[in-house]
Amino acid sequence: MSEREMERLGGVERFFEEHYFTEQPYYLPIRDEVEVFRAAFSERLPVLLKGPTGCGKTRFIEYMAYTLQQERIKQGIESPDTATSPLITVACHEDLSASDLVGRYLLKDEETVWIDGPLTRAVKIGAICYLDEIVEARKDTTVLIHPLADYRRILPIEKKGQMIHAHENFLLVISYNPGYQSVLKNLKHSTRQRFVAIDFDYPPREAEARIIVHESGIDMRAADQLALLGEKVRHLREHGLEEGVSTRLLIYAGKLMVSGITPRRACELAVAKSITDDRELEQVVTEITRSIFES
Amino acid sequence: MKPKQQVNADVVARAISKAVENAPDASRAALGDLLETLARLDSKIAVRCSDAAAGILLQLSPSQQAFFLAHALALAAQPRVAGEFFCRCADLLQHLDEDAFRSWVEKGRAIGQENEAAAVAFFRQESHASISALQELRKTVHIAEVTRLLHLFCTAIAGRTVGVKSTAEAPEELIRKGHHLPLTDGKSIYLPGLISRSASHRENFEEYKVLAAHQAGYIEFGTFELDIDALLDHPALAAFERKGKVVDSSLLASHYELFFQMFDEPHLVRDIFFALEDGRIDFRLREKYRGLAPELAKVAASSLNERPEPLSLPLQEALVESLIRLSISGQIEEDLPHEALPIYRRMCGFFSRVLRPHATVTDSAVATASIYSALHGLPNISLRSPSCPDALREAHDTPLSAPPADARSDGKLSPTEVFPYQPVQPVAYRGQTAPELVQLAQSLEILRDGITRAEEDGIPLTRELLEELLRRGAKIKISQMTAKQLAEASGLFITDLKGVLQEKLKQLTPEERRKFAKLLEQALVLKREDRVSERVFYYDEWDYLIGDYRPRWCRVREIPLEGGSGEIVARIQKEYSALIATVRRHFQRIRPEMLKRVKRLKMGEEIELNDAVDAVIERRAGLTPSERIYQKRDRRTRDVATAFLLDLSASTDEWVVEQPMPPQGHRLPPARRSLFDIFARGDAEAATADSRMPETAKRVIDVEREALVIMAEALESLGDEYAIYGFSGYGREDIEFFPIKDFSERYSEQARRRIGALKPRKSTRMGPAIRHTLAKLAATGCRLKVLILLSDGYPQDFDYGPDRSSRDYGLHDTTVALQEARRNNIHTFCVTVDQAGNDYLREMCRGENYLVVKKPSALPRILPRVYRGLTV
């Protein structure tokens, strides 16, 4: 089996969440985010991606990481044979400790071996390190990234008594969903004020329809209706729905439809039931679905 | 049960014979039977039923009467049940068919065999079982049951908050053609109170949806955005402008009024416009909401049946009616007289221009002008009149672009033949929305918002001042001011705004001034109503007598507390500074240990990797390794939300008993003062005033207040989320709920002032207050949710149960409310200073979840301990 084939099937063991791309990830620019990111990258300014869940933050960073690496390869700065993963993502959670990010000693045979954490690895190979949902990590862990996120660009490794200067292509990117975090879980100012913030929101209807077509393979007419559903449901954001329906869910609905589920049922499963537990709100979303789709 | 007082037999006999006499012939025997049977068992009920009989039977058809009386007789063994059934259930036959009605009554009868009180509530349609059974059987949809659903549905469709109400609640000015027609004022959609046309509940609901969607469509598809400036440049309207009509003479005219004023015949132009605009809205709805299209088509088709035949109308009206029919069904009318067809076809051509995916209200207005030109010159004569063909032929020869000739003025037709144009009958599902009023209200709101914004910038032109200016007829001028200018004006500072106003508001006649003031007021009222409606909540109540919930039984109003001073809190802070410091220290100690993960344990959930590696290294190095290589996940960071619910009943006005005796001559209030004592003397406040105590003495409410202040100080240092609410009220319709500090709110000066403003009020209906607090707690989404209830006695209200003197009803309801809390994973704890509290709290709170404070003055010290115990 070729490596490409294995990549496609998944289940291949990799270090952390290193991303190797076999083709360009699909991303449809909505505003000037691509230019802004390019500018930030050329100045090596850390970037904060803000926006609701499922609106394309992760896909955007994949797209940028791939595109920027391809450009370097084209310019002859990097060689395609030795190119390393352009992106390492870490899904942050409450128990994420400093060693989980930086690295730790492990036992191997009769000796201890230092294993780099994802952040250290990104710093060394010059990848974009993407800390997803950074607020979920504890605040003391978050402080660790401070020296990396300013002009110093260094990562202290306490356990080894070392300090690494970041690779020239290294960039720190974090994401943050301001919507559902409680008052207790907010980003510290000393953290957030180290980043250039790019705002994300769900794409406008036409663009979202194109995205749904591409991602789910459904026809344009149905995709347009799904995007309309998204737009309408998002109007309920301040009326009991914490978040509107994500583009991701609309794509799921599209995929269910492609596999032969009727549109109304697909939306009930992938949209109405997923976004709320409130029976009445679910009913509202179902009624909107029924209004938009004939069957 | 107490023996019933029976009524004198003569009186009963007279009442019955009178009722039978007044009854319709066919039902006399059956009614007599029923009333006699009742009289034997309970004469009081027999009299009540006799008195009501005439009105009840009147609403029923003869066959329904027999059916209904038979059912009542079948229930007569339980006279109270039969009485409720007889007096309250007749109108259900309007909404239920007989089979459904029969099975509903059967259900009630079965309940009656177990529990008479429950059956009474059932037939009063006050129990949960009754209403849910009705809902299953009924085909009628009432607005109340779909209000929230449609509100959210319309909000989603229109893209902004849209309320849904019954047309019965619509402002009188907006109702122009009866209460059955839907309408919108741009903020709320008013729909008929019930829909029962179709055979099933679902279909009737679908009709509601169509009505709501059409009104929401006005908002979504920009009906209210008509811009006269965009129209004036259009060639189709040039003809009307040239006529030299003064377009901008009106005071505070909306664009719609300016538009309609361009035409001589207001009814004709309105009818044409709405036919086109409603047609456009329906088209857009069908295009965008394909799932709704079939329902829309169904409602539209059935509305056609209610419309007059075009051929029965005079010429102009017939053509307008044909246009409306076209806009409803999309079918081209073929029955018109041969000569009228060319004009009709031209109208169809204009109409087709609004049926485009991107057509706007401007397109409708332009097409309106074109069609108006074609119709205006026609004589409104009967289609059967012999001169009709001639008139039509002539009109056909006139080119459209020329100013319309007035056929009536050239004397070919005798005036008797020509009817004045009568406005068409409105299309029921499209309703009676008046866009000019909506636009006006919107402009006024923009103006008002502008003023508010200016106020915020510190320029003192208040709303009152503006109204005052208008009332006095000061030199404020508004004519020629279009909505656009108002919008521009709103962006200016108040000085400029004044300038604009002065320039624009001129020559107000008294009548116009009144109109403006009224509109302004209306806009403000609308705003206020919105606020009010958001703050009223309904809750079910548990009736242990019937063993069922009474749905939507209690109305809880959220009332902002005003007028307190921060001094009281400052004084308490000073008085208790030592205690506050201690409690804070205690609480701060909670915090760090919560944040740490417990490591270096001998046993735990998982191996701590770093420690394990160290241990192995140590062993290799020949040292004794530590066994403490495990770690345990502690509780996560504190994720606690606590609501303190404070009893503000009149009895909290009592003096704390352990205090030294009050000065001579002062009588200690009775243990629980009757509410009527207080109301008889004015209100609770008056009661407070004359029972003044020396400074050192404290009332229950003062102690509660102190405890709260100390809690709040401590919690601020801990960082837990908390809220403080007070409650009181009088009767199930009027439970007062006072937010003192909400979860999202900070412990601000304002919150402190509200704590200062706490004072004893009326009754203690605990159930609904608890339920409302539970709803608020649930909304926080925190993992650990706690409700702490501070009270001074058992729950009590004048209508908390049928028997005023019995506590049982209130205790049961409160118990159930607390059970609901447990079911929703919310911890509850009751703290009371009522020394008799042990008696009832043991039942109410199950087990350990309550505390009777022996010395009320110790409450401030005890409450923080309670809190720690519950949340750590």
From TrEMBL, chain B:
VWFA domain mapped to chain residues: 677-866
Gene3D superfamilies membership: von Willebrand factor, type A domain
UniProt cross-references to Pfam families, sorted A to Z: VWA
Region ranges (Disordered): 390-415
Superkingdom to which the source organism belongs: Bacteria
PANTHER family named among the record's database cross-references: NORD PROTEIN
Protein name: VWA domain-containing protein
Species assigned in the record: Candidatus Abyssobacteria bacterium SURF_17
